[in-house]
């Protein structure tokens, strides 16, 4: 490890708590937390409510609080010269927020790092986008319980499903805006490849699904590929992806390494 990282974490939900424990086990901190209610912090780590109150020397701020966490604190951290690591890629479907974050990173000479989240093959999509990528479709299939509290409830009776049912077809941008807690993978696929407006997305509720199933199909001048990933949720929350949490730790280790992949 490079050894110079000083890490703070936004959020202490299922993903945040998993990451905090994993960072502590790896000897990487974190040294501070940003929480909506710092007075209720129970993890033995100093907690504050905003970037301005973080201790000096923070080099990386990790967003584990979803789109709202990135929107609330991302720009302030970037403008202060703190790199931000996030899996809330769907938040970038909001052009105003994406522009704000880019301007803050420019002002602070910092970077916003996009963790891979629950899916792989993003390196293939990036390469294909350079060499000729013409079509990308992402299909997300989850059990009905994983879609509760989302726009799927406006389309389907999730409690009465007897078979797989599509509740969304559209672009990755539309999916990210309509499903802020469920479409970060679609946004990750889009940002690595054809972009938010040219990537097709299909979202499915399936009572037979035993986990969260992600399928990518892409083709172009480079060739073609398909990828399927079945990820398990974190034990504390059926809506939180284990791989999403793990990808944050993997990205931090990559950034800290002298030789990185």
Summarize this structure as a short list of keywords or feature phrases.
six-stranded parallel sheet, alpha/beta, 31% helix, Rossmann fold, five-stranded mixed sheet, 261 residues, 13 strands, Dihydrodipicolinate Reductase, domain 2, 2 domains
Task: Set down the secondary structure blueprint.
Layout lengths: L6 E4 L3 H12 L6 E3 L12 E2 L11 E4 L2 H14 L3 E4 L8 H14 L3 E3 L7 H10 L1 E10 L22 E7 H7 L5 H9 L7 E6 L6 E9 L2 E9 L1 E2 L2 E5 H15 L5
Parallel strand pairs: 1-2, 1-4, 2-3, 4-5, 5-6, 7-9
Antiparallel strand pairs: 7-10, 8-9, 10-11, 12-13
Helix pairs in contact: 1-7, 2-3, 5-6
Question: How would you describe this structure to a colleague?
Answer:
It is a single chain. By secondary structure, the protein is α/β, with parallel strands linked by helices. The chain has two domains: 7-114, Rossmann fold; 122-239, Dihydrodipicolinate Reductase, domain 2, CATH 3.30.360. It has helices spanning 14-25, 66-79, 95-108, 122-131, 172-178, 184-192, 242-256, and strands at 7-10, 32-34, 47-48, 60-63, 83-86, 112-114, 133-142, 165-171, 200-205, 212-220, 223-231, 233-234, 237-241. The chain has a six-stranded parallel sheet, with helices on both faces. A five-stranded mixed sheet has the order 8-9-7-10-11. The mean pLDDT is 94.
């Amino acid at each position: 490890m490079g050894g110079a990282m000083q890490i703070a974490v936004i959020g202490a939900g299922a993903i945040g708590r998993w990451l905090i424990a994993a960072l502590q086990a790896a000897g990487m901190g974190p040294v501070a937390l940003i929480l909506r209610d710092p007075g209720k912090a129970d993890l033995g780590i100093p907690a504050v409510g905003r970037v301005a109150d973080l201790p000096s020397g923070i080099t990386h701020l990790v967003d584990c609080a979803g789109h709202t966490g990135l929107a609330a604190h991302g720009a302030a951290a970037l403008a202060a010269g703190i790199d931000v690591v996030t899996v809330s890629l769907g938040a970038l479907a909001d052009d105003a927020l994406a522009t704000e974050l880019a301007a803050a990173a420019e002002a602070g000479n910092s970077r916003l790092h996009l963790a891979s989240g629950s899916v792989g093959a993003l390196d293939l999509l990036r390469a294909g986008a350079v060499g000729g990528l013409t079509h990308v479709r992402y299909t997300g299939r989850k059990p009905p319980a994983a879609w509760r509290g989302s726009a799927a409830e406006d389309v389907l009776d999730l409690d009465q499903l007897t078979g797989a049912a599509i509740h969304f077809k559209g672009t990755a941008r539309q999916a990210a805006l309509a499903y802020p807690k469920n479409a970060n993978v679609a946004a990750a696929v889009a940002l690595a490849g054809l972009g938010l407006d040219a990537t097709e997305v299909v979202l499915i509720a399936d009572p037979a699904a035993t986990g969260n199933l992600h399928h990518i199909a892409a083709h172009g001048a480079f060739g073609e590929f398909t990828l399927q990933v079945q990820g398990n949720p974190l034990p504390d929350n059926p809506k939180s992806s284990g791989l999403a949490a793990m990808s944050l730790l993997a990205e931090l280790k990559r950034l800290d390494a002298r030789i990185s992949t």
